[in-house]
Design a protein that fits this description.
alpha/beta; disordered N terminus; CheR_MeTrfase; 10 strands; 7-stranded mixed β-sheet; Chemotaxis Receptor Methyltransferase Cher, domain 1; 2 domains; Rossmann fold; 3-stranded antiparallel β-sheet; Bact_Chemotaxis_MeTrfase
Amino acid sequence: MSTATVSDFHAAMTSAGGPLLGDVEFQFLRDFVYKQCGIALSEQKRQLVQGRLLRRLRALGLKDFAGYCEVLRRDPEGELGELASAISTNVTSFFREMHHYDLLVGELLPRWLEAKKHGGRLRIWSAGCATGEEPYALAMVLAEALERTGSKVDARILATDLSPQALEHARGGVYTLERMGGISDERRRRWFLRGEGRYEGAACVHPRLRELVTIQPLNLLHDWPMHGPFDAIFCRNVVIYFDKPTKQRLFDRYAGLLEPGGYLFLGHSESMYGLSDSFELVGRTVYKKKVS
């Protein structure tokens, strides 16, 4: 193929679907994303990355991917959240993988609240909280356990994510009725306020749930400001994006923040097999930190 023909092809593609993601720019993005997010992008992901990042180019007023790469070089932290949000898929729902909540309600929360009734803190971390459904579902079962037992234990949920859009949604706490399918009618009445006016067809989480949840930005691969210890960490459908060495480092760090005998919850398609000696499998994608 002649140079003129290649140029004509690129021009046609650019005018038809936006600028092309060239080899140099894609390799830069692959290296950047792996270093900053631990996500390994294969060559097969090029078209997906190109399509999803076109919106960022338009939002930033950039004409090509070379310009976007330059933005990342100049201000990696400023654009990192937007980039990670664009290339990952935040699929979440209320009470997803219900067996995890059944374990909390039936066994763990009563045990923890009893053990801590004379002092101590109960802490749960939702790592990769996306748009907030997970931490608010956790807050529902926690609030119900506190009410049921009359406990005054200092109990809180930390919710973190890298995506600015997801965190904004989580902080707003407003969800369409279609996204609340996993919530029982009783819990809808108890823990949500029906929206009116511009929020018609949506509902807002109850202020009591907001009191229990702290929402903060966090890159799991960077420094963590919190020191724990946590009684449980939920990291579901997050490590599917990471390669083996990144998973191993992350699980080791989780073990360092968990109480002895603390619990780590993974997603339904995730496993810790062969990745850590600090945990033992105690249920479906439920791992318990070993007590040395």
